[in-house]
Amino acid sequence: MSLWGGRFSEPSAAEFKQFNDSLRFDYVLAPFDIQASQAWAGSLQHAGLINADENQQLQQALKELAKRVAQQPELPLQTDAEDIHSWVEAQLIEAIGATAKKLHTGRSRNDLVATDLRLFCKQFAQHLITANLAAIENLLAFASQYSDAMLPGYTHLQRAQPIVAGHWAMAYVSMLQRDVSRLRETVRRMDVSPLGSGALAGTTAPIDREALAHELGFRNACENSLDGVSDRDFVLDLLNAASNGMIHLSRIAEDVIFYCSGESGCFSMSDRISSGSSLMPQKKNPDLFELLRGKTGRVIGHQHAMQITLKGLPLAYNKDMQEDKEGLFDALHTYLQCLQMLAFAIPELRVNREHAAQQAALGYSNATELADYLVSKGVPFRDAHHMTGELVVVAQQQGVALEQLSLSDYQQVCALVEDDVYATLDLQYGLQKRSALGGTSPSAVKVAIKHAQDWLHAAEAASKHVRQARLGDVDKICELIAYWADQGENLPRDKADILQAIQSFAVAEINDEVVGCAALYVYSTGLAEIRSLGLFPIAQGKGLGAELVAFLLWKARELGISRTIVLTRVPEFFGKLNFRITLKEKLPEKVMKDCDLCPRKDNCDETALEYLL
């Protein structure tokens, strides 16, 4: 079925139809096309363009069609429809007849496809965030397991300084954290609905586009119809996020390939992620990581192709934009699969501790410690650097390590060197000294792991049920606080107070319904308190309380807060979240501000706990 046949007296040539049709790849948009159509039908009724019975027919038919697509995603491919929009309409006409022909009133395939694609991208971006979090979780487990395992660090692919394997893994945790942040920002920017923009000039239907956008789960509607139908920045943003993410996967793959090589031998792979040679029986190849590296070019290529497609397009819609999908779909599925394979592969890697420590000791990697030692004796660093270089040459000429030089060898270069130099040349000494924030000492790595685990818990919460509160949540928050105030668990708060402090609240949702809330109150001294934490009884026991706390702790860290407290009658709950009991006397801000207002101030049964960020 064609959506544009009236103007034409002859059918399309088979050759042109095959070249022009997009159903073979845009069929994946079927669930989103149906979702957009359900919302549009409701808007048409609200605008008085169809009646309640017609809307009910459309909704029921669309619901049944959605079920069929969910059971058989490739169902549209059984027809010769031009695209997914014409397929959906044909299915509706077959099901309910003439009423289905009213659905397209006031809309165009231009604004419909832009809406469908945004809905698809929003959902897929969440899958990518989840996959990144799974990879981060396994990298954190690797970092914890090998937080003290020595490893040679490299610059210019030459041995530079010893590090620990946990520090190496945490570098990639940082990269993937940025990938998650980039994906979230991409979703935020694409969270705009073009539906109701028509072909390019808007719609004549009296549609409440803001209400329609909210019905579809968008933050708001686009403000310019020309931009609404022609904007594909969100595709470029998502392809850019995928390309950057794949570059990070490629870098970790390159590292693993090198560390697993016979020339390094610091890592080993399990047989579960290795392959062999058809000719050379001794080979154990890192094919999984080579594929991660190789598929990166594929994803980046799709990004470049999309940029070139868009660079010269005039407003508004052009058929060139049909090329926005195949590359996007392939890039996103490739990126998702690679993330999943990385998460699978990391637990299959092992650090060969003894051998890696031996490798870390080679290449005079403790030379920087020697220079620092000379500085501690009063030698200016530039001179210390030069003297250390001379001593490395002496050691090379003798074929020994720096720590094997005699004291007389040292004193010939610098008379200030004493016997205590040998302790500083021990590799463990150098590692332990690098304990500043971001350093490679095992203690610094453990701090980094804790911070990353806190971040991960918050990110998992945000990707599941928890989000920043909005003005539209105020009534539910009031209801929650009033419920727990009646139970004697919270202090009551009026609506005006909550409105003023809405930016401090987070909410938990189940099926898009707010079922819990909590707030992060920041005192003038920089201390923060988690307060107004509560869930409706129906939502308890699902881990939402822990997700709210994790989200607010992450928010506190983003604000630069170092200490967060809570006063509670359920200290065991917060204890499980790594809060530690503290004295109320250490909380003067809390005592001065709220405790005098509490009806239980003379018989307080709350426990004070703190979390150090």
How would you describe the overall organization of this protein?
It is a single chain. The protein is α+β, with helices and mostly antiparallel strands and 613 residues long. 54% of the residues lie in helices and 10% in strands. β1 (150-155) and β2 (158-164) form a beta hairpin. The relative contact order is 0.07.
Write down the overall mean pLDDT.
92
Largest sheet: 7 strands, mixed
Q: Can you list the strand order of the major beta sheet? A: 7-8-9-10-11-13-12
Q: What is the number of helical segments per DSSP (H or I, 4+ residues)?
A: 24
Sheet-strand content, in percent, reads 5-15%
Unreliable stretches covering 5 or more consecutive residues? none
Structural class: alpha+beta
Rg, Å, rounded: 31 Å
Distance between the termini: 61 Å
* Helicity range: 40-55%
DSSP, total strands: 13
> Which geometry do the CA atoms define?
globular
Layout of strands and helices, then pairs:
Layout: H1 14-20, H2 23-26, H3 30-46, H4 52-71, H5 84-96, H6 109-145, E1 150-155, E2 158-164, H7 165-190, E3 192-193, H8 209-215, E4 220-221, H9 225-230, H10 233-259, E5 267-269, H11 287-310, H12 326-345, E6 349-351, H13 353-361, H14 367-376, H15 381-398, H16 407-413, H17 421-424, H18 427-433, H19 442-464, E7 466-468, H20 474-486, H21 495-500, E8 505-510, E9 513-522, E10 528-535, H22 544-558, E11 563-568, H23 571-575, E12 580-581, H24 588-593, E13 607-612
Parallel strand pairs: 3-4, 10-11
Antiparallel strand pairs: 1-2, 5-6, 7-8, 8-9, 9-10, 11-13, 12-13
